[in-house]
Amino acid sequence: MESSTEPSCKVAKIDIHPFHGFKEARVLNELKDKKSVFLHAVVEPGNKDAVVILEKKPFDTSEEGLASLLSSETELQQVISNDIYSTYSATPKPRHGMLKTTMIYPATQKHIDKYRKQEVVVVEETYDDYKNITLPYLEEENKFSVQWVFNILDKQTESERIVFEDDDLETGFILLPDMKWDVSDLNSLYLIALIHKRGIKSLRDLTAEHLPLLRGILSKGQKAIFDKYNIPKEKLRIYVHYQPSYYHLHVHFTHNDFDAPGTTVTRAHLLSDIIQNIEIAANYYQTKTLTFVGRKEDKLTIALQKSN
Ligand code: M7G
Fold first, then answer.
1. Measured from the CB, is residue 91 less than 6 Å from ligand 1?
2. Contact, 254 vs 228, CB < 8 A?
3. Whose CA is nearest to atom 7 of ligand 1?
4. What number of CA atoms fall less than 13 Å from residue 272's CA on the CB side?
5. Which string of b and e fits 176-185 if b means at least 16 CB within 10 Å?
6. pLDDT per position as a tens digit, 174-223
7. Phi first, then psi: what are they for 122, rounded to 5°?
8. Is 250 annotated as catalytic?
9. Which is catalytic among the residues 241, 248, 250, 255?
10. Residue 48: which region, alpha, beta or left (left: phi > 0; alpha: psi -120 to 50)?
11. Ligand 1 contacts CB of residue 148 (under 6 A)
12. How confident is the model at residue 38 (pLDDT cuts 50, 70, 90)?
């Protein structure tokens, strides 16, 4: 296993505390095994909605981290003591209790629904369904804004986090850490490649014309990750989501040892498979029925279920 070699992210100065004005919160979902909770908070003034995700971070197992954890700085309250066995409630120094915190503010109802625990169902989408149901839905319903993607491509935000860029407007992309990764633990490495070309919404738009773009993301992305993090390509899972949340084509790069969300067969399509499928048939993604999981109460899921 690779060890943690990256320093923690830079600490930005915060003028107004992001939690200022929070007046009530409710749990949208809780993943006890991942030690994370998804909250919907109402914020004053204006009673605006926010989504806050809190995740306990992995232990700092560096020499220094362990020395601090296993020291008298950690307060212990004994629970049992029996022969050679004892258990305690431990309160370590604050730095060991850090939480990865993600905040979406103001959040839309779609954000609240995305993080709310909901029943999901498997649906099939033929290409006709895509044209007649999915595409009109994406155009009519207020899908998630991709402004954050344009901000990155235009170097308005996160430019200091860019790991690699190919600036060709047809075949180029920016590779950078995904919001889900706090860049401290290489075993949970998570990067995304955002393509420079605008207007390619998802897998469904890909044809032979895009092979140079896709091949470039695969090989240059693998090389950039090896050069920066010393993680070889055989340790990486490289895939596209269908359906994605954000309809500007992007590719996920995650460490294969990391149980990243959204890697199941009902959502993830390996980039190498996508390339081969298109090499076999240029219009593969304009013919293939695609199967994915959708939230049961989602309008798109309901419409596709009716047509199945
Ligand atoms: P997706 O497949 O469209 O949706 O992937 P998902 O969120 O349901 O997986 C979009 C990816 O972009 C996700 O992995 C997000 O964590 C990531 N992401 C989203 N936002 C808003 C940002 C952002 O502002 N910065 C970065 N670096 N990553 C983001």
1. no
2. no
3. 245
4. 9
5. bbeebbbbbb
6. 999 999 998 988 989 999 999 999 999 999 999 999 999 999 999 999 99
7. -90, 130
8. yes
9. 250
10. beta
11. yes
12. very high
Look up residue 44 and give its two tokens. 């004053």
DSSP label at residue 132: I
Check whether 4 has a pLDDT greater than 60: no
Give just the sign of the alpha carbon dihedral 206, 209, 213, 218. Answer: positive
* DSSP H or E segment with residue 139: helix 135-140
The residue type at 249: L
CA torsion through residues 237, 238, 239, 244, sign: positive
List pLDDT tens digits, range 71-90: 999 999 999 999 999 999 99
* 118, two tokens: 């909901």
Burial 63-96 (b: 16+ CB within 10 A, else e): eeeeebbeeeeeeeeeeeeeeeeeeeeeebeeeb
State mean pLDDT over 86-108: 93
The CATH architecture assigned to 118-307 reads 2-Layer Sandwich (3.30)
Cβ atoms of 193 and 217 within 8 Å: the answer is yes
**Ligand 1 atom at shortest distance from the alpha carbon of 190:** 14
Question: Which CATH code is given to the segment(s) 22-100?
Answer: 3.30.200.40
Q: Would the CB of 178 count as within 6 Å of ligand 1?
A: yes
Give CA–CA dist 251/217, Å, rounded: 8
Domain ranges within the chain, ordered by starting residue: 22-100, 118-307
Q: Residue 168 and residue 10: Cα distance in Å, rounded?
A: 29
